Amino acid sequence: MTEDTFDIMQFADDTQSEGGGARPMTCKVRIDGGYVSYAPGLSPQERFFSAAEYGKDDAHEMAKAVSAPHGASTSPVVRMTVYKNAVLDRDTSNWKYDTWPHDYITWQSAYTEVFLPSLKKAIEDGFVQAWDNWVRLEFVPDPYKPKRNDGTTNNRAFIAEVYRDRNAAAEAVGVAVSDETGREIPSEPAQWVSVDDGEGSWTRFFNSLIDTFKANPQASMTDMVLSEGGVTLEIVMAAKSIADDESMPF
Question: Which sequence spans correspond to the domains of the chain?
Answer without folding.
Answer: 3-171, 189-244
